[in-house]
UniProtKB/TrEMBL annotation:
Organism for this UniProt entry: Spirochaeta africana (strain ATCC 700263 / DSM 8902 / Z-7692)
Keyword list, A-Z: Carotenoid biosynthesis, Membrane, Oxidoreductase, Transmembrane, Transmembrane helix
MF (Gene Ontology): beta-carotene 3-hydroxylase activity
Protein name: Fatty acid hydroxylase-like protein
Segment forming the signal sequence: none
Organism ancestry: Bacteria, Pseudomonadati, Spirochaetota, Spirochaetia, Spirochaetales
């Protein structure tokens, strides 16, 4: 009775702690990415994010530096977690990496078609909702006025049941963006 935590219980607790760190990091990354997208990429970091909204046709974009930063974060967590025997830290790094895989798969491959041979037409309601939200976001080609900063989650207002409202919002944003571009051209800024 002296020691209530047997090796089996300790192993199970360690597994649960690692699993919780993995899942929490993967979920938290959506909020970190949304915050970064809204408050850094569309503000101070627009110089790197600009080419993502105004496609240059190049295979690599300055915007890819953000993905490299988050991949580096995942690597550092995994490396130091494994090196120092901090399994929850390594697990969190793998969770960040899992989010990165999801981001790359949906955002870069499925939405932006950066691997040209892979074409994707989502039939799943969840994926169509994310696609609609991202379409609304990318209708804005200027630094300001963008909506929907999420990557792997989207509010229900972007669901296919609300397609007429989403299409109307897209039309309104595109018209506003064309007007802004025209004004900038008239002032000699673009």
């Amino acid at each position: 009775m002296d020691n209530l935590i047997t090796p089996t219980v300790a192993t199970a607790l360690q597994f649960l702690l690692n699993a919780a760190a993995f899942i929490a990091a993967a979920i938290a990354m959506e909020f970190v990415a949304m915050f970064t997208h809204k408050h850094i990429m569309h503000k101070y970091g627009w110089c790197l994010h600009y080419d993502h909204h105004n496609t240059s046709g190049h295979r690599l974009q300055k915007n890819d530096l953000y993905a490299i930063f988050f991949a580096g974060l995942s690597f550092v967590l995994i490396f130091f977690g494994l090196r120092n025997g901090w399994a929850p830290m390594a697990s969190a790094g793998f969770g960040v990496g899992l989010y990165g895989i999801g981001y790359f798969t949906f955002h870069d491959i499925m939405y932006h078609g950066r691997i040209r041979r892979l074409k994707f037409k989502p039939k799943n309601r969840y994926l169509r909702r994310i696609l609609n939200a991202h379409r609304v976001h990318h209708a804005t080609v200027t630094q300001k006025g963008a909506l929907s900063f999420h990557f792997l989650w989207a509010p229900k207002k972007y669901s296919s049941e609300n397609q007429p409202e989403v299409d109307a919002q897209l039309k309104e944003i595109r018209e506003m963006q064309m007007m802004l571009k025209k004004q900038r051209a008239e002032k000699g800024h673009g």
